[in-house]
User: What shape does this take?
Amino acid sequence: MRYAKQAWSLVAILALLGLAMASVSEAAQFNWQQFKGTQLRVLINKHPWQASIEPHLKEFEALTGMKLVVEVYPEDQFRAKTLVELTSGASSMDVFMTMPGQEGLKYMRAGWYQPVDEFLKDPSLTSSDYNWNDFLDKARDAMVIEGKTIGPPIQIENSALMYRKDVFQKYNVKVPTTLDELEAATKALNGKPMTDDGQPGFGFVARGKRAAATSQFAGMLFAMNGTWLTPNREPAINSPEAVKAIDMWGRLLRLYGPPGSENNHWYEAGSIFSQGKAATWLDANSLFPV
Assistant: This one.
């Protein structure tokens, strides 16, 4: 069974400035203050990584003498704003988050990425204690588009099933280990009382909103031996395997998910699950803290 993986990157337009977050203990001679006084505008998607890194941005400013102007937007708004600014050709963005597997090829061919290969090789821009090979092979590979490295990976995530252990135990339902068992479990639990006040809940919740859903649907697509493209780079979404995967994703949301699932991003799906209103939640494992 194959599982979808998504990689997020932080792309620096002017330089690989995120390298300055590395330890300085082994690079005392490195000039961290060479860009002192520079102001950088940073656009970030509202995300668990963003929530964990933001408290440390002051450390970056203290170390480098640079000023960060950070803007955080919900994912849909972030993607739309980033695309509009890049398309305009007059954007003041210096740094932005990106998902190479989603927009990477388009952005690279449009000239919106600044490759960082030469920055990594330049000892005046990259501290000697920063080792690019510390990243896993696949994480590094995900950052390479048409032979060029677009930036450091900040996160790789897998699709994962989060479930209410108490609800499964209460109704004596087996925790699923296959997609068929997932459907059986969600069917069995849908409509069962599961909230603190005994209200019935949903068997399943997941993303159903346009592009946001595709990153998680991809796991089901690959698990059923489907793929987005044929070896000849032609669309394969109408293959028997892909149709079967689309049918199951839609069926789980339609029959065992909350009404209006087609409008749910991970924010909405996570809120429903965290309120105890669903027995299972299929989404990225980076959202465990949510």
Q: What stands out?
A: The CA atoms of residues 120 and 126 lie 6 Å apart. Confidence is low (pLDDT under 50) at residues 1-5, 12-18, 21-26. The domain at 164-287 is CATH 3.40.190.10 (D-Maltodextrin-Binding Protein; domain 2).
